Amino acid sequence: MLRPQGRLAFTSWVEDGLFKTMQDMSKAAVAESFGQATPEGADAPFAWGDEVAIRELFSEHGLMVQVEQRNLVIEEDSALGLNDRWFDLHPIWLTMKDAIGEDSYEKLREETLPIVEGYNEADDGSFRYTLKYLLSEGSPV
Q1: Which of 43, 85, 97, 101 has a CB 3.0–4.6 Å from the CB of 39, allowing a cystine?
Q2: What total number of domains does the chain contain?
């Protein structure tokens, strides 16, 4: 809900590269744990990482939204360090651990490490990756 002259601003991850791969793997693990298919089509979550989808969503409600893609470089001592940080500390991952159980969670941790290593942009043994995100800002037309 916005006031008549209100403004909105939010950020969202672009779903590609490492982010999309990790997200797809986690969705599949949760779906498998519950004996379900990964949500697709009308059941899929809204595409917050899609500039056109964001603009269309808000234009239907009389809001003009400008969307700008930006980059965020994440760095860690190693790919293993990043993977462990996500699995050990990230609230969304920890919530997933409760949903799928310890054994499935540790299996997923093992499966994601080579993926994280494959997206590494650093060549010195550390880890670096450029995540894309959207900055969306808007107001009533």
Answers
A1: 43
A2: 1
